[in-house]
Design the sequence.
């Protein structure tokens, strides 16, 4: 198998040395530091480890699992061990999803550099592989070969192939498997190696249901002519008037033969390649980049928000880590939370107060935000500060924010003038906003700035003349709102320098919707516990919608969620709440829904709310929706599955019995689910061919979640994989849904094949 990769992998001295292997120290904590022998396999795609050179090795990670490699200076853990190990000898392997980082310490700076440079080279290679290369030679295929080749001799006997089929979730008749094996064994050596294994795999993955679909549109059963392909795109894929131009583009992109491209025809291989690509995906490619209007006020957007961002575990004893901020920002969160308390030596610290969670320095959090704020998205980051500090340490907080964030920190209104509405994400590009308590109103701040400017000009003009005898300037006339606020103002607990950094995000207590309309301004916002927000939706849903059309709202998880569990954000989004804060460290249904909404619009962390949630006069009530919202009927034909992973990989002989559940999340009447029957003992190519029907009143708010489960009559069905997306980003027709793990990482090559059809109104015909 390794030989088939030659000439394609970037081979340099670093990679060759990694393939020889290196003894390094694996570090989990200050007390857990153990020597392990790491070696890059011949396939160049997997790293195995053993207790010592020549010892029994087992897989450690695949190159495709790796997001990036960081130097020792960037590792929170290795920095704490700097007295024990030179930071230059350490490095961190960061994985996709929620998998913990791998911290390693080499025996020399040179060895650390070899692994850092070599790994990054391979990661870049995998990232940059085009679609066809991924189909032809993916790392996972090489990984299967490695796992099946039990004696590691670079070839596979039929007995090893049978073992591999079980590992791959294939329950296949022995005689048929042997026929495929013999057909692929071109060298007649009674073993498979390199290209032979790839041919065996292709025969194994032949798609009868795709061939049948292809033949339905092909006159000769051998190819789709340009006109036949245009018919398919218009009739089934609902591509509309641009189908002719699109057909030419897709043939050029996915037809493997040059002669086919020249003749403008699509072979069965090209057809399958198209259906398996991003163009044949359920998620509309036009929704992947930033496609929405980003010039509206901030309160018109849903904002990807994190709760207690510093925690990477539970709320009582969990670890506080700068890594929590790095991960949240890199996954697109635009609002992160910082709980700040007085720390020793005059340095403020961050942790969950009055609990056993560990502590980190506030300045390290700010440094991480400065470095990672705009790596995933250019749109503004909101620092939600919960301050429990003395005035002295508040001064330090303000100083760190100003000095570390520099130009990124927003310290005044954009033009220095009093605004009439919140600025837009576009206007606030690459800016960091502070959200927190403020001593005064924005109007008072701006008036004082103006007076200071006038005083400075007068001093310059008078060239230092004494100001004795001058009358005290009169207090500027305040608006009734300002007077009301001034009378109620309590003793300041915040230092002026920190208060001044709060510009567009002043937090205020919520009393009632009429009180907010009468006394509060557009740049003031309130926070609600999930319980209070839910109660308000039931009691005054329409008022909440109107409130969120002019002012920001933040919702946070109940304090009873000590295990860092999550609530369903959908019902809060239905009322237009913008910042629905999640425990992003906890995977599950609720985070699938959150990730599903923010998967669109370039993953930039801002999603424009539907127009009826941006109108201060809106009549929409999330609990009692009425027209003019356009109801739709969705027909989902669940056709087949491809290479679904085993739930319990430790049980070699266990094959999954998969079923597909389709869930709709939206307003309460639209929230429902249906599922197919299960297919016994087939996770490799199960066929269902069942149609499910959904009637949706408010499609603009709906999200769809496709879940594959392993049927278990004794207990709850086991989770296999899922994919969640907004209704508005769904493509109709024959589509593949590429599944994600519980952790949100790609389960390549696992997918399900479906047909989707949307009809106007609520009449569904499942024929």
Sequence:
């Amino acid at each position: 198998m390794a030989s088939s990769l030659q000439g394609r992998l970037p081979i340099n001295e670093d990679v060759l040395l990694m393939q020889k292997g290196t003894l390094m120290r694996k570090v989990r904590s200050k007390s857990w530091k153990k020597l392990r022998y790491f070696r890059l396999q011949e396939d160049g795609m997997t790293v195995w480890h053993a207790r010592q050179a020549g010892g029994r090795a087992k897989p450690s990670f695949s190159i495709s699992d790796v997001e990036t490699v960081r130097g020792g200076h960037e590792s929170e853990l290795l920095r704490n061990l700097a007295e024990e190990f030179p930071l230059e000898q350490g490095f961190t392997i960061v994985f996709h999803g929620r998998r913990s980082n791998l911290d390693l310490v080499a025996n020399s700076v040179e060895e650390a550099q070899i692994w850092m440079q070599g790994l990054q080279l391979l990661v870049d290679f995998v990232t940059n592989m085009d679609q066809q290369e991924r189909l032809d030679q993916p790392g996972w295929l090489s990984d299967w070969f490695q796992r099946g080749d039990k004696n590691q001799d670079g070839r596979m006997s039929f007995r090893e192939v049978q073992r591999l089929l079980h590992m791959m979730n294939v329950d296949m008749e022995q005689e048929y498997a042997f026929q495929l094996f013999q057909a692929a064994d071109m060298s007649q050596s009674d073993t498979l190696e390199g290209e032979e294994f790839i041919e065996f795999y292709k025969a194994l993955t032949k798609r009868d249901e795709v061939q049948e679909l292809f033949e339905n549109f092909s006159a000769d059963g051998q190819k789709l002519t340009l006109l036949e392909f245009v018919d398919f795109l218009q009739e089934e894929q609902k591509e509309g008037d641009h189908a002719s131009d699109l057909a030419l583009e897709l043939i050029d992109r996915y037809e493997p033969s040059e002669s086919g491209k020249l003749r403008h025809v699509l072979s069965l291989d090209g057809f399958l390649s198209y259906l398996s690509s991003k163009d044949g995906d359920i998620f509309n490619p036009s929704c992947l980049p930033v496609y929405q209007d980003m010039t509206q006020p901030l309160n018109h957007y849903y904002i990807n928000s994190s709760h207690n961002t510093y925690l990477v575990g539970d709320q009582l004893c969990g670890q506080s880590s700068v890594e929590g901020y790095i991960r949240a920002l890199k996954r697109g969160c635009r609002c992160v939370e910082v709980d700040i308390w007085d720390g020793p030596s005059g340095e403020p610290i961050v942790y969950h107060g009055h609990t056993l969670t560990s502590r980190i320095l506030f300045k390290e959090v700010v440094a991480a935000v400065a470095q990672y704020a705009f790596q995933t998205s250019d749109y503004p980051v909101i620092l939600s500060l919960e301050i429990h500090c003395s005035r002295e340490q508040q001064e330090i907080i303000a100083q760190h924010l100003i000095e570390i964030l520099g130009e990124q920190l927003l310290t005044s209104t954009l033009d220095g003038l009093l605004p009439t509405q919140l600025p837009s994400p576009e206007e606030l590009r690459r800016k960091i906003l502070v959200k927190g308590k403020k001593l005064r109103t924005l109007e008072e701040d701006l008036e004082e700035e103006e007076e200071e400017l006038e005083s400075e000009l007068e001093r310059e003009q008078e060239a230092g003349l004494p100001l004795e005898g001058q009358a005290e300037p009169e207090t500027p006339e305040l608006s009734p709102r300002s007077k009301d606020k001034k009378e109620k103002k309590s003793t300041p607990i915040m230092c002026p320098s920190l208060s001044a950094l709060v510009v567009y995000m002043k937090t205020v207590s919520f009393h009632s919707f009429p009180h907010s309309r009468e006394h509060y301004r557009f740049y003031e916002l309130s926070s609600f516990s999930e319980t209070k927000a839910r109660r308000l939706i039931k009691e005054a849903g329409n008022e909440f919608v109107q409130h969120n059309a002019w002012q920001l709202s933040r919702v946070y998880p109940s304090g009873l969620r000590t295990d860092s569990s999550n609530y369903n954000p959908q019902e809060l989004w239905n009322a237009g709440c913008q910042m629905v804060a999640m425990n992003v460290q906890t995977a599950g249904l609720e985070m699938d829904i959150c990730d599903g909404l923010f998967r669109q619009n370039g993953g930039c962390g801002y999603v424009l709310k539907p127009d009826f949630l941006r109108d201060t006069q809106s009549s929409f009530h999330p609990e009692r929706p009425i027209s003019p919202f356009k109801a739709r009927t969705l027909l989902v034909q669940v056709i087949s599955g491809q290479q679904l992973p085993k739930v319990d990989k430790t049980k070699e002989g266990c094959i999954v019995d998969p079923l597909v559940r389709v869930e709709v999340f939206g307003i309460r009447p639209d929230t429902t689910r249906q599922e197919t029957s299960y297919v016994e003992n087939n996770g490799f190519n199960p066929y269902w061919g069942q149609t499910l029907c959904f009637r949706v009143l408010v499609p603009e708010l709906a999200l769809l979640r496709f879940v594959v489960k392993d049927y278990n009559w004794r207990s709850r069905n086991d989770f296999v994989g899922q994919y969640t997306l907004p209704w508005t980003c769904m493509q109709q027709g024959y589509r593949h849904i590429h599944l994600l793990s519980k952790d949100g990482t790609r389960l390549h090559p696992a997918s399900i094949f479906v047909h989707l059809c949307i009809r106007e109104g609520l009449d569904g015909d499942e024929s």
